[in-house]
């Protein structure tokens, strides 16, 4: 029986085993008034005018997926929509894009995982709200976001607000300064004040050169790369050197100049420790006027540190028992207020140290263990304070001990 003796019904939910072969004697002429059929569902091909699938020179996976789905000819592919192609078993997104490219068809695909990810993606302000603690910072960021929206709207009228958006982030290590900088970049991108949501993170080595005359060039190159972005300068106080007139001063002076030149297309954030940032602004009086916003990142309270520890444990697939929670809170109470410890980084180290102790409990005694029989629950025995020397030092009273 020749190909013309067959009628193939192609629908996106059919796979190879689902295709129906009908003898021409059994075929009833198509009735346009029959609501059960749609004209687009019925496709007839003339075998003599069809191009074999092999001539498209597809990859092995794509070719095999199509053949298993009963597709033998290029014309059959051309008759299928991109959506129908995505339902071909084992073809995958890459295969669909390959076919569309071979056929000269534009395709913008978004698979289910992409859709789920897009649905899960939170706005920048929602991400800000989810951060633990930092209430003063959150409130200030909301005000800055409101001002940025106003600045954008005023710009649309052909005018400009002269106030710059430069910021100073002051806080001890691990108090989420970099995280908030990234969120602010997303906010500016979302409202359209900046063309994108990128953050360019730099330090002293990116700004200061080793030879005379090269520092200014490096600073200008950084600003060229940062155009349209948020420029985050971490440990900005490190530009200050003990002797005036050194390369660090050249970097600061050029920084002030470039902040003025790029005030409308680059948002600069200077970050550093509380006791050192003031020295940076004293070095060049013109710097302060270009940084109108100061955000102070306070050390976390013990209860907030506990919440961070629980979040860090969850990220790693662990839960914390009630006894372990009490132990962590005790450790955090000793660390809170100590600049080297009272922050999120300490909490992360605390959890990672607990996981090491946990691993030692389950696997440290028997090197031949092959079964995963652990419960992923951190107990009180797992919780030990990292950097105990720092904590002990912090608790020592000032003065001399009586003999």
**With helices defined by DSSP (H or I, 4 residues minimum), what is the helix count?**
17
For the terminal residues, how far apart are their CA atoms? 111 Å
Q: Can you tell me the number of structural domains?
A: 3
CATH superfamily of the largest domain: P-loop containing nucleotide triphosphate hydrolases
Averaging pLDDT over every residue, what do you get? 80
What does this 3D model show about the protein?
There is one protein chain. This protein has 403 residues and is of the alpha/beta class. It has three domains: 3-113, DNA polymerase, domain 1 (Orthogonal Bundle), CATH 1.10.150; 124-297, 3-Layer(aba) Sandwich (Rossmann fold), CATH 3.40.50; 302-395, Helicase, Ruva Protein, domain 3. Helices cover 45% and strands 8% of the residues. It contains 17 helices and nine strands. The strands form three sheets. The protein has a five-stranded parallel sheet, sandwiched between helices. Strands 1-2 form a two-stranded antiparallel sheet. The protein has a two-stranded parallel ribbon with strand order 8-9. It is extended. It starts with 5 loop residues before the first strand and ends in an 8-residue tail after the last helix. The model is unreliable at 1-20, 32-39, 115-120 and 390-403 (pLDDT under 50).
Task: Provide tags for this entry.
403 residues, alpha/beta, DNA polymerase, domain 1, Rossmann fold, Helicase, Ruva Protein, domain 3, 3 domains, 5-stranded parallel β-sheet, two-stranded antiparallel sheet, 45% helix, disordered N terminus
């Amino acid at each position: 029986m020749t190909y013309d003796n067959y009628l193939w019904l192609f629908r996106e939910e059919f796979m190879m085993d689902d295709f129906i072969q009908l003898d021409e004697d059994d075929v009833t002429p198509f009735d346009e008034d029959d609501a059960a059929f749609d004209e687009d569902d019925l496709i007839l091909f003339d075998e003599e005018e069809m191009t074999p699938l092999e001539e498209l020179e597809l990859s092995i996976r794509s070719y095999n997926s199509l053949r298993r789905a009963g597709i033998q000819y290029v014309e059959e592919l051309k008759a299928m929509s991109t959506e129908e192609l995505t339902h071909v078993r084992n073809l995958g997104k890459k295969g669909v894009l390959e076919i569309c490219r071979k056929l000269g068809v534009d395709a913008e695909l978004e698979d289910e995982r992409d859709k789920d990810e897009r649905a899960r993606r939170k706005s920048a302000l929602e991400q800000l709200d989810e951060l633990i603690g930092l209430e003063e910072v959150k409130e200030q960021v909301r005000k800055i976001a409101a001002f940025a929206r106003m600045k954008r709207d005023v710009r649309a009228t052909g005018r400009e607000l002269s106030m710059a958006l430069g910021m100073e982030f002051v806080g001890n290590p691990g108090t989420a300064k970099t995280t908030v900088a990234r969120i602010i970049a997303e906010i500016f991108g979302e409202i359209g004040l900046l063309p994108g949501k990128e953050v360019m993170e730099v330090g002293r080595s990116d700004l200061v050169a080793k030879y005379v005359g090269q520092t200014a060039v490096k600073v200008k190159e950084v600003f060229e790369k940062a155009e349209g972005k948020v420029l985050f300068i971490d440990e900005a106080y490190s530009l200050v050197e003990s002797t005036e007139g050194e390369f660090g001063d050249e970097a600061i002076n050029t920084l002030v100049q470039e902040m003025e030149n790029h005030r409308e297309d680059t948002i600069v954030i200077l970050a550093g420790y509380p006791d050192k940032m003031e020295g940076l602004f004293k070095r060049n009086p013109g710097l302060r006027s270009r940084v109108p916003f100061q955000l102070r990142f306070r050390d976390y309270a013990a209860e907030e540190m506990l919440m961070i520890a629980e979040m860090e444990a969850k990220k790693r697939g662990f839960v914390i028992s009630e006894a372990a929670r009490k132990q962590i809170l005790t450790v955090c109470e000793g660390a809170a207020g100590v600049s080297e410890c009272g922050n999120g980084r300490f909490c992360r180290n605390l959890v990672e140290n607990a996981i090491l102790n946990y691993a030692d409990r389950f696997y440290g005694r028997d090197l031949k263990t092959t079964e995963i029989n652990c419960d992923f629950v951190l107990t009180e025995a797992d919780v030990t304070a990292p950097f105990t020397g720092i904590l002990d030092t912090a608790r020592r009273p000032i003065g001399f001990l009586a003999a």
